[in-house]
Amino acid sequence: MGETTKATGGALSGLGTIGFGIYGIGETHGYLNTTIFIIIAITGIYFTSQYLGSRKLRDAEIVYNPNEFFLVTFLCFVSIVGIYSCYSIYNNEKNIGESVANYAIAMVVAICVIAPCYFTYDIIKNRKDKIILRNTEIEITDNGTKLILQHENILHFTLDGRKITFTFKDKTNNSIDLSELNLNTKDTRKLDADLQKYILKKD
After folding, report:
1. At what angle do helices 31-50 and 2-29 cross, to 10 degrees?
2. 202, 193 in Cβ contact below 8 A?
3. How far apart are CA 57 and CA 169, in angstroms?
4. What is the pLDDT of residues 178-195, one digit of tens each?
5. Within 10 Å of residue 63's Cβ, how many Cβ atoms?
6. Cα(100)–Cα(17) distance, rounded to whole angstroms?
7. Residues paired with residue 160 on neighbouring β-strands, in sequence order
8. Spatial separation of the C-alpha atoms in residues 87 and 126, rounded to whole Å
9. Partners of residue 38 on adjacent β-strands
10. Rounded to an integer, what distance in angstroms lies between the CA atom of residue 52 and that of residue 186?
11. Is the confidence at residue 10, as pLDDT, over 90?
12. DSSP string, 9-50
């Protein structure tokens, strides 16, 4: 009973903190403006991360090397807006109260500053990752490590979500998370089609 009460109390406390945070943000920036920004931010991040393709034809090669500029720019924009929001909330502390202002600033910092900065770092860290499809081989670069797969050694491949697994004729396999190469949903679909049409017969 005691554990249940503590859990319920913790949940209510968490909801209260979120509620105060939303109240502080809404009272500072206006609820409509806040809603519009959230919709723009979510939509922009989703489309720039999922639908800006990276496939390029270069001589006899097909290169998948994402251009992270637009996504990183949008994430930086969100972070800048978040920092400005914190400043505005701080200046509005007298109207909304110190505690509410602290909750609101903490929420903005977590969602609009720390999270975008983390994703920006992760994207930039993988900016040199790429996949190159050639007539006789596949070159995969991940965090500076280059892997060359010869077509003649590959039995088949499977694609599950954004995880691709190559099975070799010696019965060994190698799995690669395409999201760690900054390849998005659109890239994954095109890579699947390229492998089936030009490189391998999919299992």
Report:
1. 100
2. no
3. 29
4. 988 989 888 999 999 998
5. 16
6. 8
7. 163
8. 32
9. none
10. 7
11. no
12. HHHHHHHHHHHHHHHHHHHHH-HHHHHHHHHHHHHHHHHHHH
